[in-house]
């Protein structure tokens, strides 16, 4: 299951197995109180009790139990305690190994993608050789320019007549005027690579107040020591005024000298030649000329930052220079991403505001940057991102609801928000923005999972906008007025799905009594006839073709799906008796079979 919030394990490091406990005392160093993130309590781990000489283990154990019974001693056998502790320790080791495996799997996938990129880059080099050969052929004295061996190599490389693939220079031709247009004018840091998460923070000159120092302190102060080794924070100064850039760099080097020298923080700034002429932009969507220029430059800033960050880590998360973060944010983000490694997501959202807290897989940055470069003058970046999702999964012949369901599988929202916007004065001159993330301080009242795309419906009367659609997509919990016999909740998949298991959890911490009672779980196989099923499964078939595979007990329904019923077309929750209470459904997890 996916994380619904902050969870912690006994060893927070990545890539290391948990150390076996030794007799004596175990735990982490004192100083972390109970209830705090990362808190551990000291507890004794007892060695196995030695038995009296000459007695077999089972005889010694029976004698000890008999003596305790006569003495009224109800204390547990330490041997049992040690056994249980051992099992718990083994479970922790399994979890650690699973996480290590997921991280390794993700790194291998990234490596495969980068090999493909290198192949494309080599093809581009061949194209450059072709241009060199063409220039050589036009030259009056090519022999003096190149040796015979060089000319021979050039002819071999350009022997095939292939087409040229369009590049970003088509959309940004001014970059060809200066070969250093895509090289940072300022680059401070150790050039750390191979991390899990790269955090990108663009910053520009603000007329009233800068929030950059406070933002960096919030990010850094909420990292544990081992987390500081597994990430890099890239500050992008989106200005070409040398004096201003040098001033910002000096302030950051003074305030964060340790973090810069360790490789945790890097500072970059683009060359002036990176930016095109932004004085004659077309005004669109009712925006003023100044706002169009501001948002256009912002798109270019994001692209430069993404291109720089792409090779540094597995994931890239976009932040802003006027935010604060929640404690334990890094571990929460990493766990959430790794547990989604089998899903084809494109964006993970850790804030609902604008472009704050949007995380991408590093290989996807190539597509995103190319798309933004094509339309950087047309729309703001958050609109362009939505267009990318539309192009990837939306069918023009389907309605908007179908499109939203498809996009929800690529754009996954985590709640509660981990980042809060605190800046009052925008980088756009004269703009005051009182934007805050309403989900930042909210407790989590639902658990989020990625479910197969489906059309959802219910006969229940919804209370105050807590709809079933929002629950299925992980945006809210479902709340309905008193169910009666015959009511249903239906999940009809867009495409039949091979389902491994299901989990439905009703009630929440605010309303624990609002649970589903006398409700069954039913599935509709794609095939109505010819199923190779057991007699026990066959007996569960209903008149309308559904199979009853489970029911709610104490507000929860969970179980495995008989593989012979796959693929499944629909899930249905059916109320078979009137209920005396309202119903909340706060967790829906229909888990697909993984290859």
From TrEMBL:
Keywords, in A-Z order: Coiled coil, Glycoprotein, Glycosyltransferase, Golgi apparatus, Membrane, Metal-binding, Secreted, Signal-anchor, Transferase, Transmembrane, Transmembrane helix
Molecular function (Gene Ontology), one example: metal ion binding
Enzyme Commission number: 2.4.1.145
Pathway assigned in UniProt: Protein modification; protein glycosylation
Membrane topology: Single-pass type II membrane protein
Locations listed in the record: Golgi apparatus membrane; Secreted
Broadest EC class assigned to this enzyme: transferase
Pfam families: MGAT4_cons, MGAT4A_C
Any single biological process term in GO: N-glycan processing
Domain MGAT4 A/B/C C-terminal, first and last residues per copy: 454-587
GO CC annotations, alphabetized: extracellular region; Golgi membrane
Catalytic activities: N(4)-{beta-D-GlcNAc-(1->2)-alpha-D-Man-(1->3)-[beta-D-GlcNAc-(1->2)-alpha-D-Man-(1->6)]-beta-D-Man-(1->4)-beta-D-GlcNAc-(1->4)-beta-D-GlcNAc}-L-asparaginyl-[protein] + UDP-N-acetyl-alpha-D-glucosamine = N(4)-{beta-D-GlcNAc-(1->2)-[beta-D-GlcNAc-(1->4)]-alpha-D-Man-(1->3)-[beta-D-GlcNAc-(1->2)-alpha-D-Man-(1->6)]-beta-D-Man-(1->4)-beta-D-GlcNAc-(1->4)-beta-D-GlcNAc}-L-asparaginyl-[protein] + UDP + H(+); an N(4)-{beta-D-GlcNAc-(1->2)-alpha-D-Man-(1->3)-[beta-D-Gal-(1->4)-beta-D-GlcNAc-(1->2)-alpha-D-Man-(1->6)]-beta-D-Man-(1->4)-beta-D-GlcNAc-(1->4)-beta-D-GlcNAc}-L-asparaginyl-[protein] + UDP-N-acetyl-alpha-D-glucosamine = an N(4)-{beta-D-GlcNAc-(1->2)-[beta-D-GlcNAc-(1->4)]-alpha-D-Man-(1->3)-[beta-D-Gal-(1->4)-beta-D-GlcNAc-(1->2)-alpha-D-Man-(1->6)]-beta-D-Man-(1->4)-beta-D-GlcNAc-(1->4)-beta-D-GlcNAc}-L-asparaginyl-[protein] + UDP + H(+); an N(4)-{beta-D-GlcNAc-(1->2)-alpha-D-Man-(1->3)-[beta-D-GlcNAc-(1->2)-alpha-D-Man-(1->6)]-beta-D-Man-(1->4)-beta-D-GlcNAc-(1->4)-[alpha-L-Fuc-(1->6)]-beta-D-GlcNAc}-L-asparaginyl-[protein] + UDP-N-acetyl-alpha-D-glucosamine = N(4)-{beta-D-GlcNAc-(1->2)-[beta-D-GlcNAc-(1->4)]-alpha-D-Man-(1->3)-[beta-D-GlcNAc-(1->2)-alpha-D-Man-(1->6)]-beta-D-Man-(1->4)-beta-D-GlcNAc-(1->4)-[alpha-L-Fuc-(1->6)]-beta-D-GlcNAc}-asparaginyl-[protein] + UDP + H(+); N(4)-{beta-D-GlcNAc-(1->2)-alpha-D-Man-(1->3)-[alpha-D-Man-(1->3)-{alpha-D-Man-(1->6)}-alpha-D-Man-(1->6)]-beta-D-Man-(1->4)-beta-D-GlcNAc-(1->4)-beta-D-GlcNAc}-asparaginyl-[protein] + UDP-N-acetyl-alpha-D-glucosamine = N(4)-{beta-D-GlcNAc-(1->2)-[beta-D-GlcNAc-(1->4)]-alpha-D-Man-(1->3)-[alpha-D-Man-(1->3)-{alpha-D-Man-(1->6)}-alpha-D-Man-(1->6)]-beta-D-Man-(1->4)-beta-D-GlcNAc-(1->4)-beta-D-GlcNAc}-asparaginyl-[protein] + UDP + H(+)
Protein name (record): Alpha-1,3-mannosyl-glycoprotein 4-beta-N-acetylglucosaminyltransferase A
Gene: MGAT4A
């Amino acid at each position: 299951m996916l994380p619904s919030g902050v969870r912690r394990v006994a060893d927070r490091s990545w890539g290391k197995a948990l150390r076996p406990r030794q007799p004596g005392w175990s735990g982490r160093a004192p100083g972390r109180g109970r209830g705090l993130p990362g808190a551990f309590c000291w507890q004794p781990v007892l060695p196995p009790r030695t038995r009296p000489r000459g007695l077999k283990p089972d005889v010694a154990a029976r004698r000890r139990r008999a003596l305790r019974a006569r003495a009224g001693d109800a204390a547990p056998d330490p041997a049992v305690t040690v056994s249980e502790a051992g099992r718990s320790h083994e479970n922790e080791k399994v979890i650690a190994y699973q996480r290590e495996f997921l991280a390794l799997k993700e790194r291998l996938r990234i490596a495969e993608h980068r090999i493909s990129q290198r192949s494309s880059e080599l093809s581009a080099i061949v194209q450059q050789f072709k241009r060199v050969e063409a220039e050589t052929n036009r030259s009056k004295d090519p022999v003096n320019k190149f040796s015979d061996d060089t000319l021979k190599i050039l002819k071999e490389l350009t022997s095939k007549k292939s087409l040229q693939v369009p590049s970003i220079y088509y959309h940004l031709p001014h970059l060809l005027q200066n070969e250093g247009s895509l090289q940072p004018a300022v680059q401070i840091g150790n050039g750390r690579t191979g991390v899990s998460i790269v955090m990108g923070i663009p910053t520009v000159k603000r007329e009233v107040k800068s929030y950059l120092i406070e933002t960096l302190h919030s990010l850094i102060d909420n990292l544990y020591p081992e987390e500081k080794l597994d990430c890099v924070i890239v500050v992008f100064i989106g200005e070409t005024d040398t004096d201003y850039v040098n001033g910002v760099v000096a302030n950051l080097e003074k305030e964060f000298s340790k973090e810069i020298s360790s490789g945790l923080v890097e500072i970059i700034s683009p060359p002036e030649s990176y930016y095109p002429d932004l004085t004659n932009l077309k005004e669109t969507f009712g925006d003023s000329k100044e706002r169009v220029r501001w948002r256009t430059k912002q798109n270019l800033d994001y692209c430069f930052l993404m291109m720089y960050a792409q090779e540094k880590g597995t994931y890239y998360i976009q932040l802003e220079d006027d935010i604060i973060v929640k404690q334990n944010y890094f571990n929460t983000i990493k766990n959430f991403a790794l547990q989604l490694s089998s899903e084809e997501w494109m964006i993970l959202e850790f804030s609902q505001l604008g472009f704050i807290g949007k995380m991408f897989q590093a290989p996807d940055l190539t597509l995103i940057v190319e798309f933004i470069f094509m339309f950087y003058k047309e729309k703001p970046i958050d609109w362009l991102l939505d267009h990318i999702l539309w192009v990837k999964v939306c069918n023009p012949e389907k309605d908007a609801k179908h499109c939203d369901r498809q996009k929800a599988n690529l754009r996954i929202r985590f709640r509660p928000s981990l980042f809060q916007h605190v800046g009052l004065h925008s980088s756009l001159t004269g703009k005051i923005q009182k934007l805050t993330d309403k989900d930042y301080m909210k407790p989590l009242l639902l658990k989020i999972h990625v479910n197969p795309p489906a059309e959802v419906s219910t006969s229940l009367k919804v209370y105050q906008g807590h709809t079933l659609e929002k629950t299925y997509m992980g945006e809210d919990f479902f709340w309905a007025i008193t169910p009666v016999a015959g009511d249903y909740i239906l999940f009809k998949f867009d495409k039949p799905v091979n389902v491994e298991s299901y989990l439905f959890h009703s009630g929440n911490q605010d309303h624990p009594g609002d649970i589903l009672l006398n409700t069954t779980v039913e599935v509709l196989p794609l095939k109505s006839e010819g199923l190779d099923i057991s007699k026990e499964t066959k007996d569960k078939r209903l008149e309308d073709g559904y199979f009853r595979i489970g029911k709610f007990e104490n507000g929860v329904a969970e179980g495995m799906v008989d593989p012979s019923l796959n693929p499944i077309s629909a899930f249905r929750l059916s109320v078979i008796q009137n209920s005396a209470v309202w119903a909340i459904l706060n967790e829906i997890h229909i888990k697909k079979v993984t290859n």
